[in-house]
# Entry
Amino acid sequence: MNDTTNTAGVTAALVRRELSWPELLGLMRAPKEPTRFDETIVAHQQLVDWDEQILLPLGENLYIVAKDGRRGDQLVAVEIDVPADDAELQRFAESWNGGGNPRSALGV
# Structure
């Protein structure tokens, strides 16, 4: 059983995906606590190993963070399955040396 005796405990369990289906269903049906967003940020911050303050979680492994007093982004990990039969993508992957922004070469 998770620490679901307070709203911060429930939110942390939600972020860690530790709630059972009945607990999750109850949470979805209940009014949202006004502190939920701040508790969510704290719960995400406890899962990462960097010091930059998380401003907004964008996805499972992508965050907007505060870097040197400015907004920045932080990526935990990325693993993407791509089609093996895409010749253009294959050439790009083979020629990319890991430096710079790979999106710029793709026009993104």
Q: What stands out?
A: The mean pLDDT is 79. Helices lie at 7-15, 21-29, 36-47, 87-95, 102-105. Residues 7-100 form one domain.
